[in-house]
Amino acid sequence: MKKILALLMASVLVLALAACGGSAEPAETEETEAAETTETEETAEPAEGDVASGVEDGVLTVAMECNYAPYNWSQPDDSNGAVPIKDSNDYANGYDVMMAKKLCEANGWDLEIVRLDWDSLIPAVQTGSVDAVIAGQSMTAERAEQVDFAGPYLYASIVCLTKADSDLASAAGISELAGTCTSQIGTIWYDTCLPQIEGADIQPAAESAPAMLMALESGTVDFVCTDMPTAQGAIIAYPDMKILDFSGSDDDFDVSDEDVNIGISVQKGNTVLKDALDAVLSEMTADDFNALMAEATAVQPIEG
Questions:
Q1: Does the first or last residue of the chain, that is N or C, have fewer Cβ atoms within 10 Å of its Cβ?
Q2: Which CATH superfamily is domain 158-246 in?
Q3: Contact at 8 Å (CB) between 96 and 146?
Q4: pLDDT on residue 51
Q5: Which residues of the chain have pLDDT under 50?
Q6: How many CA atoms lie within 13 Å of 53's alpha carbon, on the beta-carbon side?
């Protein structure tokens, strides 16, 4: 009888152990799944649409031509608050540099300037090679498909430049303009404005703003189309030029706000940087922008 009772107790013990083993196995699986989940979270890439601000290191890297006075230019020293150009012995200054310095000061960032050709600016910000482009870019819908814009950080009306002794110097509207003309490649001046002039003989676009101005100065073209800040800077370097400003008349260029609003481009989805820039710019007025542009124009090198 004792032997039978012992056997029964042993069987019960085996069943109990088996039951414990059955309940322990799911617990072990849960721990494993939790560990795998944690490991996956640690190694997962950012979700689509997540974009690093670029200023996590405390540095705002800004691209510009450094050849587009009075917006930006290169100079051999740090006079008038110029900033070193990366991988160069030159320094950058101008309206864009002055504005970049204000933005960095407000956010506690250091400023790094990168010199690029005009056509390389948007690709650089798209790929994250630079954090932002501050280079006198109009906030056009076409560009807005490629980048996000902070700003505006300037409002720039569209004008023309001709020689002061030209027959065109007395023109009172775009309908009175005729002859050869050009503007800078990849701008609304060339793509949108010049085609509105019926008497225009449009020549190939200039590779840069200085090249555009040289085409006029050398007599290659009769007039050029640009924005007011560029024109104001041009007549300092070339006193024999005259600004033709038709704004306020019925015979002016047909442009939208996106054509004359000048913005700062950042990578698509970079809301952190865009919001930080906009927070500073929203506190500035058109008068503030114009005063800073006047400061830039006043210290612009004569050679442009």
A1: N
A2: Periplasmic binding protein-like II (3.40.190.10)
A3: no
A4: 82
A5: 1-48, 304
A6: 15
